[in-house]
Amino acid sequence: MSLLADLPDMLSPPPMAPVMRQLALDLEPMAPTGLDQFVPEGNEELLAWLHAWPDSAQPGAPAYLWGPAGTGKTHLLRGLAQQALAQGWHVLWLGRQGFQSWEVANAAASTLVLMDDCESLDSTQQHWAFNLFIENAAVLAQQKASAEQGVAPGMAIVAAGRMPPVDLPVRDDLRTRLGWGLIFGVQPLGEEGAKAVLTQEAQRRGVRLAEGVLPYLLTHFSRDLTFLMNLLERLDRFALAEQRLVTVPLLKQMLAQETE
Hints:
Shape: elongated
Structural class: alpha/beta
Distance between the termini: 56 Å
Largest sheet: 6 strands, mixed
Number of strands: 6
Radius of gyration: 21 Å
Order of helices and strands: HHEHEEEHEHEHHHH
Strand order of the largest sheet: 3-2-4-5-1-6
Number of helices: 9
């Protein structure tokens, strides 16, 4: 039986807690989320580790990715989810909005647990996360005790947050477990890396950017890629409505109208 089949019991909330919500499955957001679409600038070691997963992982030990908002942590977790599914793993995603689960045909397959926005998990979600770590330890102990070690289904946990585990505003027992495995700092992109991401996204959308638009974006706005991708999406819609080429004056016009 898969780990996901046991979720109602394993993730049962503490007394008087809100009922857990199952989110609609969303593996195809607007922006591409595969590992191959991640610009590696400054994060080559982390990306190599993710591409090599699960062979690169230490059995039973979690991995934790931390970095400022907009550095691509969610992108990397979603890319790993796609890779795990392609390799026949079940996937469970736990975040501040609840959880998502993806099951594969083999009910006895191993399970990858992904935890995002760890700094934003409420008390109930922290309870679920802690229970998953307890289950992870139990699965590892069962494997070690089995004569067929390595054949029995396994479990892996990869988490992400905006700060190192030691600084996370979560319960102490969860903070300790998030921090005892591999820890990777996700480095923000420099100007060239951010320009490459925005160029890639503009090409994917079929958006024609006039010369000077990207330098203007990177000079006048935050390098937070979540913000910049959202801005590019709004600019794309605005340009289509105006039937004009994306230029700096058009960007200024859009921003002026948004603030009216």
